[in-house]
Amino acid sequence: xxxxxxxxxxxxxxxxxxxxxxxxxxxxxxxxxxxxxxxxxxxxxxxxxxxxxxxxxxxxxxxxxxxxxxxxxxxxxxxxxxxxxxxxxxxxxxxxxxxxxxxxxxxxxxxxxxxxxxxxxxxxxxxxxxxxxxxxxxxxxxxxxxxxxxxxxxxxxxxxxxxxxxxxxxxxxxxxxxxxxxxxxxxxxxxxxxxxxxxxxxxxxxxxxxxxxxxxxxxxxxxxxxxxxxxxxxxxxxxxxxxxxxxxxxxx
Length: 252
Ligand code: G
Ligand code: G
Ligand code: MN
Ligand code: NA
Fold this sequence. Notes:
Radius of gyration: 18 Å
Distance between the termini: 44 Å
Number of domains: 1
Shape: globular
CATH superfamily: EAL domain
Strand order of the largest sheet: 1-2-4-5-6-7-8-9
Number of helices: 11
Bound molecules: guanosine-5'-monophosphate, manganese (II) ion, sodium ion
Strand content: 15-25%
Order of helices and strands: HEEEHHEHHEHEHEHHEHEEH
């Protein structure tokens, strides 16, 4: 309960921050995933696994989600002014509850025009949980956002219930191989088979594919042999505060 009441004040008190994790594609840094952090005055850094579910239950995720989008778009605008950073994209995680709001599309459009961010640099990460009901609504919203240039990645692919039928009808740009399949990819032939299947599926649907949770060169090489050419994980970088991420990006 204490955490919950603190959470309500956290936005007003500006206790949230975004960290950025590198995304590599074709051997170069192509962008980042924005991951929210809560710097609690007593508890220190509270990981999202502890407060995102709470924010979803209480509905605070709607305001938090809007703040994340706004902060990411403002960041894109800053990068746009620097030729060394202007190509970088930001992927933002969107909760089902946030995406389901009837005005989600206009909210994103409003944030993009107010901040003047390039929609082509913004990618929204959706999870399979969204694809279980009212898929028509999801398809419609995705198309509206795609029409203004926003991209989509299917997060945690393989851990949920997506039907391959819907996958064909949803305008995703990229699938993310969940890190649970990457972790033991060198030793577990089932995981290796699943990863290979996801890469093949993405290719045949004409989608990009990125592997999450890449921690070692051996995992990277294995994935490259499967023709997965985009990666995210500690092998390259942990999620970093903005200053450190920019330093990382400029050193690239
Ligand atoms: O690295 P990590 O501990 O940051 O993230 C843990 C979980 O929290 C992941 O499932 C991630 O998708 C989720 N998460 C991180 N940032 C956000 C955010 O801004 N919005 C939502 N909805 N989920 C997030
Ligand atoms: O659920 P989602 O994929 O949005 O969240 C990404 C989560 O994965 C974050 O918690 C992030 O910190 C974590 N993560 C990113 N790279 C790695 C990695 O290489 N290893 C592990 N164990 N976790 C990672
Ligand atoms: Mn994600
Ligand atoms: Na994921």
